[in-house]
Amino acid sequence: xxxxxxxxxxxxxxxxxxxxxxxxxxxxxFGGPAGQIAVMHxxxxxxxxxxxxxxxxxxxxxxxxxxxxxxxxxxxxxxWLLHGVRGGLVAGTLFVLPGVVAIMALxxxxxxxxxxxxxxxxxxxxxxxxxxxxxxxxxxxxxxALGGRLTAAIALGAFVAIFFFEILFPxxxxxxxxxxxxxxxxxxxxxxxxxxxxxxGSRRPALRGSLAVLVVGLGLWLGPVAILLAALGPxxxxxxxxxxxxxxxVVTFGGAYAVLTFVxxxxxxxxxxxxxxxxxxxxxxxxxxxxxxxxxVQFVGFMAAFGQPDGLQPMAAGFVAGMLVSWVTxxxxxxxxxxxxxYAELLREKRQLTAALNAITAAVxxxxxxxxxxxxxxxxxxxxxxxxxxPLRLPTVDAASLDPIALALVVAAWSALVRLRWPxxxxxxxxxxxxxxxxxxxxx
Length: 444
Hints:
Layout: H1 15-27, H2 32-47, H3 53-64, H4 70-113, H5 117-124, H6 126-145, H7 149-163, H8 169-186, H9 207-232, H10 237-251, H11 256-270, H12 276-288, H13 296-307, H14 314-346, H15 351-380, E1 384-389, E2 392-397, H16 404-418, H17 424-443
Antiparallel strand pairs: 1-2
């Protein structure tokens, strides 16, 4: 897959080399989608140059347009780009595996003991380090993706639209794409399309192959839900969880936080599977462990079945439900990419469509900045809120609730990454150790 000069400028990695890197990426993917995208960019584009900047951003643009966890879909896309279906399976599976293991272990601990003090202490120092990681990555991405005033304005507009007005993500992306098309039509070089870049020569995928991917993908994704429905009926908790989260995988556009908003409201208010406090605890676990932030759905499934085991032992019911929810949440990512990525590659040869995607890239910078700021506010301040002025949403914080230790750890992690050039893993480990000691000392 790597014979395209726009894929990489180094010799193609073997699948074994890629596997080791995907393990590293998975174990260091903290901080939600912004942090995970940052880690992939750093390892695959900057350090190893296996994927060119424009190719990475093109894959990110496409992933952001899909329902579900965009960072996971990006990993599958890049894995597919490097080594075909095998590479996509390896990258996508390894990307979620640490999170599956970590959240399952923490769910069992939480349900069994309802005491997460040790766990909170363990991850207390990781969150501030993640803020630094995301900040460094967002700055680097902005330097590369914002090549002029128009792209900078699109990025700023996307940030303002989402952060202050809560405009739906698909509308923001659609507006950016439209601006890109208009700019290319009337503005000439306002949105650069890199006319000197060679066409990638991608062939249009065969319809027969696409249909085969669709049939196999749908069978793997929805097969377990159909079996549960036939065996247990529609009222069983496992059937309900499988059906709900399979549906959520289709309707939740806008990235991990949009998914979490929908899932949180439905799981707490509509179904009563867990309390709002438990939902926040689960979100804290997902933010503090490697893997996609949306992995919190595994915790939701675990707690729902643990509380309504329907004849099973509660822990066993929770385990089965957690794995089921993870399956129906992440399998669609493979389907969307294996089905759509070959067609997305064809778009790179269309100059006007490239302009639209470049505008989307600029909007993505604003989206990631929004996620980064949201995460920073939630981490640094114990009390946050908002003030509404018409359609305008103004986030507020209680200055007295600022966590000075967390702020100091952010500054220290930033210095370690930018000035001292520490490796990411060392930075996270050092911050986690300092945070662990500080949390236990202040808690005591």
